[in-house]
Structure formats: C-alpha cells, structure tokens
Design goal:
Chain lengths: 299, 383
C-alpha cells in the first residue's frame, strides 16, 4: 500500500517535449514509474525516447489508459493544462509549475471542486510525490528515498517545501527507516492538496505507521492540520516548521510563505501541533531524530 | 509588490473607480503646479509605504499656493518611521460626509475571495475588528462566480451602509473586485471609502499589493517596479535575478530551496547568531549562480561569515562543489565560508572542496547543518 500513487499508476507527462518535462519525465520512468505517454499540442504522433506523444490529454488517456498526469509547463499554460487533464478524466494531477498567478490558482481550484470532484490536484509549485519502489512523479531524486519494508515500521511524509522534503527523506534513509509515500504539497497560497488530505490518507494506509509533517510560515494550514490531528490521527507524528526568524511582511521565496498581520507565524504553528500531541523538532534533523525515537518505540 | 498610494489610485482609475483629481510631485514647484490644476483647497500627502503618515505630519491641507509650497517643502524629505518621503500626492480636498471601508483579499483557509466591508472607515480596520467585530461584513466570493451588483448591494445593506450611499458603494464594490481579479492584486483596499455631502461615493485612499507571479501579463507594472524601495543589496540581487531578502545580522546565508533557506536562518538563530539575509539559489546551483550569490553577500558590509547550506537532490554534490571552487576564483571574499554539503554525491563534493587548495581560514566544511551554523556564528562573533 501507499497513498495516492502506486505501482499501478499510469502517468502521462503534459509538456514531455519541453526541457523540464523531458528531464524529469524520463527520470521518473527510469525509476520504474509507468510513464505511458506525453502531451504536447501539435506534436502528436512523435515520441520522446519511445514514449508516445499525443496532441491532447483526452487522446492520450484513450490510447494509454493513464489515470495520472505530471504537468511541467510554464505558468501561462499551467491553468489550462490542469483543467484539460481534469476534463479528460485524470484522477491525480501533479503540477510542479512555479509562478502561477494566485488568481488563476484560486479559479482553477474552485473549478475542480465544483466540476471535477473526483480529480485530485497536487501542487502547483510542488516537488511531486513518491511512493518509494512503486511510483515517482515529479522532481524528487528517487535514490534518496528508503524503500518501505513489510517487516519494519514505515513513515509517511507530507511537506510544503521541496528541499526540506528531500532533507526529510534523507534523514530517514540515514537511519534506515522506510517511507510509504512522500508528498510535497507545495508552497503556493492555494494548494490543490493540503496537509489534512494527506493526513487522512496516511491514517487509513496500513503501510504507514508514523507521519512526518513539514510546514512553514504563512496561512493557517498547519493550525487546521493540528485540529484534524487532535480529532482523527492516532498514528504518532513528528514535525518541523521553517521560518521562525522570518521577518513579517516578506515573502520568503515561496509565494505562500509570508507572515502578515501577526498571523501565520512559525511559533503559532509549532504550539498548535504540540498541543495536538505532535513531537516538534527545532530543525529538520531534530524532526528526523524524533521520528527515529518514535519508530524505535513502536518496536 | 506594494504600490504607493498615488500608484494605487492610478491603478484604481484604470478600473473606473472614482478618485479625487490630483497628481504626484517630487519637487515643491511641481506640487504647486499639480495643486493649481486640481483646484484649491488641496491635500498634500506623503507617499510612503508605512502607516501613521497623518500623525507624523505627512498629510496637510493647503488653501493656496503659499500653503502648498510650505507643506510640500516640509513633507518632501521628511523621515516617517525610517521611510524618507521622495514624492507627495496632491489632490483636490474632498468634503466628507461619511467614511467607510472596503477590501478584497484571498482567504487562504477558505480558498475563496474575501470581501470585507464596514460602515466604520477611516480608522485602522484591525482596531474595528478588535472593538466591534460585528461592524465588519465578511463575505466569501467564489472566484468562479465573481460578485454581482445585487450581491454587493446586499453586503452593503448588511454592513449598515446608509440608503443614500448604497448604489454608489455597490457599484464601487463591483469595480474594485474587477481591479482585484483582472488587476491581479493580492490586496485591493479602500480606506476610507467616502460619501460626499453631494451624494457621490469615491476612494480617498488606495492600498494595493500586486501578485508578482502575474507580472508576465502586466507590462504596465514596470513603472511600479522602478519606484520600489529596495536597499542597495536587494537592488544588486535583483540584477542577478536572485531570491534575496536583506536582513540585519552578520552571517551571510546561501541555500538551495526556499524551505531550506528559511530553515538555515532559523538554525543560525538557534545557535545564537543572526542572519544577514535570506538567499535561495534554487535547484541549479552552478558556478554562475554561486558567483552571483557570493558577490551579493560580499557587498554587505555587515557580513562576517558566510554559511552555504546545500542539500543535493537532483543537483549533485560534486557539481555544487565545482561551482563553489570556480566562483571563489572569480569573487574575492572578505568573509570566510562555512559549508554544509549533504545529499546526493555529497562525499565527492566534499572531497573536491578539500582538494581545491583553499585554506581552512577561508573555507570550512561541516557535516551537519547545526555544526556548520555553530562554526559560522563563532566566526561572525570573532571567536
């Protein structure tokens, strides 16, 4: 088991003929992901190293039976690409595009909710998702993810930051702790999938024994997650929140990472998570160490 | 990007939101010229992006050219909470019957647009929210639907806006929403939104914050970018296209990834130091980017040590190391570097750094984030 994606997931890459799409799409395929096709308008009928390219998502889905899409197109084209994938019946969309205007993101999110309730969007501006050994969609380096083992305790990861996601994978690998699924939800103001969506799945996933959550300043997603954890999550958790020292009113690299009007501070988020029974580390390594202790205690 | 009041009003005018006739001036003579064409009496307003202008003496009424000259002379160059006034906005003074408040933002938790409307304007809305929360109407708007004049009118009724102002307010709410959405604003706020004794409703102030991600479809934003108040370090970073935010501390920071960069600031703080900046060099981290980053850090006279924190994912450790060695041959640094290189091929990267012939006094390598932070802070404190 794993959450959202597994060995049966069939992926198409929207933007497979572009620089990013080709590089990461081929890496994902080399990892073992079923990358069954690509979509680039006007390039249907060609192929990228043996992967067939289609003009539209609908034709790609009809020909390949794909149920997931990896979107690696520029910000101008990303909103239309997401809605095209949803309209073609894609169940799981990963959009790594950084720099989509917030107004577009809000409109796309609400369109999906209303017209395509069975489609899940991960991102935009996210590193993607990896269920180690089964499926890797996005830009995560597969080799830093420890495979889950049926004889040991395995951990699920959910994170708003790309490099801190890798850091978390690496901390666990150093300690020989397997990962069920690692989800990067991204650093934009309106993420398609939030912490709660992932926590709910991890709680239900028999392969996941414990959860690491990595948040950052801005918004209230961590506080809402804390409320959800208190009420619904029985699996042990550790967490880390970046941006304790971030000055207010500045966007710290990510469009969503901003403390405004005294709201969205790291301290407030850490307090909320602690109150929900989560062990909170002062830095990513400490969150890893805390998880190692949790896993050891689980036996 | 935050706009000055005068830019916000010009932006409002693009969407037909009524504002007072006026203009911007950078000299006293210009101020008088603008005042003459706006018609006396005029208000001379300091253009700074900080609250409390009025209390600081940055907003004055002038009845003639002499008074305009006097006030503009005093206000131009004035220091308001650390912001030096470079421009004044001069507009025809409005007679005010009532003052309201209106704004649109994105509510991240609800993932919908949020209209806030109150019949109590002209004061800090946070204060109204604290004292009399019922005085503010908060209405979520689905971005797919937008807002109609009928819905806007109902919101105005709920906010206890008096009958005589309802039509004007509803109309401006629709116009302001268009400005917020089509104008790609993070925030579009009018405080105060005034009712004149003659019955017209118009925007007496403008607070607009633009979403930088949308700049590709707004060529008209170039002029706003030109007046953005950046410190010299931030200006240099912008010429190199770097994600840089200047801070006050003594440890220069370079990291790959926004989350890791934030985390690096935190760890430096945790071991008793303080960061001179936030700098995310992104995924690539090649020699050119690294050299540009080091150049910007080196420009900051407060920097006593430099902490490079790199986690290799797809970016490989040996490529990062080569980039640093190459960059060091191009930039003559004042402060020593402490580097933590981890992740994919980190071992090879560390080896390259160790064998590059760089003296230990200039470059130290540490295996973990925490140890590297401790070393960088020790150097910054002269230990």
């Amino acid at each position: 088991m794993a959450i959202f994606v597994n060995q049966n997931t069939k992926v198409i890459v929207q933007g497979l003929t572009g620089g990013q799409g080709k590089y990461h799409g081929l890496r994902n395929k080399a990892y073992g992901t079923q990358v069954v096709g690509g979509v680039t308008p006007g390039k249907g009928g060609s192929d990228v190293e043996g992967i067939p390219v289609f003009d539209t998502v609908a034709t790609a889905v009809a020909a390949t039976g794909a149920d997931a899409s990896f979107i690696a197109v520029p910000p101008k084209a990303a909103s239309a690409a997401i809605l095209e994938a949803a309209a073609a019946g894609i169940r799981f969309i990963v959009c790594i595009t950084e720099g989509i205007p917030a107004q577009d993101e809000a409109r796309v999110y609400n369109t999906l909710v209303r017209d395509f309730p069975n489609t899940r969007l991960l991102g935009p501006n996210c590193p993607g998702i990896i269920s180690p050994g089964k499926c890797n969609i996005g830009i995560t380096a597969g080799e830093i993810a420890e495979l889950p083992s049926p004889n040991k305790k395995n951990v699920g990861i959910v994170s708003r930051s790309g490099t801190l996601t890798y850091q978390a994978l690496y901390e666990l690998k150093q300690r020989g702790i397997g990962v069920s699924t690692c989800v990067g939800i991204g650093g934009d103001p309106v993420p398609g999938t939030n912490f709660i969506d992932c926590l709910r799945e991890f709680q239900a996933d028999p392969e996941t024994d414990a959860i690491i959550m990595i948040g950052e300043i801005g918004g209230s997603a961590e506080e809402e997650a804390a409320d959800f954890i208190k009420a619904n999550v029985t699996k042990p958790m550790s967490a880390y929140i970046a941006g304790v020292t971030a000055p207010p009113g500045k966007k710290m690299g990510h469009a969503g990472a901003i403390v405004s009007g005294g709201k969205g501070t790291a301290q407030g988020k850490m307090d909320a998570l602690r109150a929900a029974g989560v062990k909170v580390g002062q830095n990513p390594t400490e969150a890893g160490t805390l998880m190692a202790e949790i896993v050891a205690a689980l036996g | 990007m935050d706009l000055f009041e005068y830019q916000g009003k010009q932006y409002f005018a693009r969407f037909d939101i009524p504002v007072s006739p006026g203009g911007v001036a950078v000299t006293v003579d210009e101020a008088v010229k603008v005042a003459e064409s706006a018609g006396y009496p005029v208000v001379v307003k300091a253009q700074v992006q900080v609250g409390g202008r009025g209390k600081a003496g940055g907003i004055k009424l002038a009845n003639d050219a002499d008074e305009t000259r006097l006030h503009a002379g005093n206000i131009l160059g004035m220091d308001i909470k650390g912001h030096v006034v470079k421009r004044v906005w001069v507009e025809h003074a409005s007679d005010i019957a009532e003052e309201y408040y209106a704004s649109y933002t994105l509510d991240r938790a609800a993932k919908k647009h949020l209209l806030m409307l109150s019949a109590q304007g002209g004061v800090d809305i946070e204060e109204v929210a604290a004292k009399d929360p019922d005085a503010i109407v908060k209405l979520h708007i689905d971005p797919v639907d937008g807002i109609s004049e009928a819905v806007a009118r109902r919101a105005a009724v709920d906010a206890r806006i008096p009958d005589k102002a309802l039509d004007g307010v509803a109309k401006i709410l629709v116009q302001l929403y268009r400005c917020f959405v089509e104008g790609d604003c993070d925030l579009a706020e009018i405080n105060p939104l005034i009712l004149k004794p003659t019955g017209e409703v118009h925007a007496l102030d403008a607070k607009v914050s633009l979403d930088n991600n949308a700049s590709f479809r707004h060529p008209e934003w170039d002029e706003y970018r030109a007046t953005e108040e950046l410190d010299a370090r931030e200006q240099l970073a912008r010429t190199h296209d770097l994600q840089y935010i200047g801070l006050e501390g003594s440890v220069g920071i370079i990291a790959n990834g926004a989350g890791l960069a934030m985390s690096t600031l935190d760890v430096v703080n945790q071991v008793g130091g303080s960061a001179a900046n936030f700098l995310d060099i992104g995924g690539g981290a090649n020699a050119d980017v690294m050299a540009a980053a080091l150049e910007v850090i080196n420009f900051d006279q407060n920097v006593k040590s430099i902490f490079i924190n790199i986690f290799g994912g797809i970016t490989r450790g040996e490529e990062v190391a080569k980039g640093i060695v190459e960059a060091l041959s191009r930039v003559d640094l004042r402060a020593p570097i402490v580097i933590r290189l981890d992740g994919t091929n980190a071992e090879q990267g560390r080896e390259i750094l160790a064998n590059a012939g760089i003296p230990e006094s200039k470059l130290k390598s540490k295996p973990t984030m925490l140890e590297a932070a401790e070393a960088a802070v020790a150097i910054a404190k002269g230990k």
